[in-house]
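It is worth pausing here to work through a concrete case rather than discussing structure prediction in the abstract. The textbook approach is simple: state the sequence, then state the predicted structure, then interpret. We follow exactly that order.
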Amino acid sequence: MIKRINTYLNSHEEAAPLAVFRLFFGLLMLLSIIRFWSYGWIDKFYISPSFHFSFYGFEWVKPIGQYTYLLFFISGLSALMVALGYKYRLAIVSFFLSFTYIELMDKTMYLNHYYFVSVLSFLMIFLPAGKYFSLDALLLSRKAKHKTATVDTNIQYVPRWSIDSIKLLLGIIYLYAGLAKLNSDWLFKAMPLKIWLPSKFNIPLIGDLMGQEWVHFAFSWIGAGYDLAIPFLLLWKRTRSFAFVLVVIFHILTRVLFPIGMFPYIMIVSALIFFDPQWHKRVVYAFAKAVSYPKQLLESGIYLTAKSKGLHKLSLGIIALFFCLQIAIPWRYLLYPGELFWTEEGYRFSWRVMLMEKSGYAQFKIVDEVSQKRFYVDNSDFLTPLQEKQMSFQPDFILEYAHYLRDHFAAQGHKNIAVYVDARVALNGRLSTTFIDPSVNLATIKESFAPKKWIIPFTDDIKGL
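Step two, the predicted structure:
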């Protein structure tokens, strides 16, 4: 077994798939940054709000005012450098840090595909994606020609695991997304698609079908089957082309039906990594011809070898730990009692995509326990509409906001502040019910990874993983 593992780790493959992936990933990330900037979302979501929700353990990550524009500029510039393969290692580290900082600035903005970009860019730090068809390779070859460098400049073959690691990450995402759909609400009630799809009646050609119940169930079952099957269909050469067509149709359809930004295009481009190296070489040669990239640099026959065995082992160790965490983290919800969709303890970072429709109402009461004065908070005085919406049905948001209100009113001179909330939440079409124990003073509750016992238990039963 160990011998087979060592043989695999020492095997090589054409570097073209990594180069194509790097190019398309960088360009898509650049377009994403430009899109976000052009819509005015930097100011709307990160500068204008007076309060920002933070991730537990990352409370120190805060928006930086007008310098937030500089952070987005650094992220966009880094994405362009990644695409070009210019100072690749510096560029991908810079992109990972800047993009992840942006993601951590306000929990309100959490999306699965933002998390995907962060974990993928972290993985790419340890992949030799800048060794082939890149400005780095071109500039090094010119230095070598002038005898100012003696390093191998044109790497044509890279370790097979460096390409397979991206396939593995995509497989984990799809499989977990599919497993998460194996629940009674999704399969037997067509929830939440039964809520969402009827509003899409104005879509050309298919709009009239969106209100029909059989369509809701068909989309639910097909969606679950697609997620569970597509990694294997992409891996098998005989079904790969058909699978990619499915990828395109599925993600374009989801883009038409739902406002999920660049995610469909990211997944479409990512799926190209499953194609044979020869297919990627044709793509590389087409680009190389268009930009007059020297053809001889693409046919060096040089294999990438580790310059330092210690550093190589360290990189493999980090990647192994990375994948262990990616496999384990989605299961952390098993450590918590109660219904996952209700409490959301362990819900984020688990590739549970568009599985529920929650709406809530949260009215906060402030009590000065010295003067016994009490009053209710107008949430719009402190939160944007999006922040208030997200806060109203997520317990950690509610607790963090309660602490903010405690500190805010304490700073105004109130003594021994107590914060209570009247919160009601509706999940997947059910009637709204009380969500948070109204007798609990949230000002005294500390955030932690421990179960939140002040959440009122869910009164229904959702079966599944």
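Step three, interpretation. Residues 358-465 form one domain. The CA atoms of residues 96 and 394 lie 27 Å apart.
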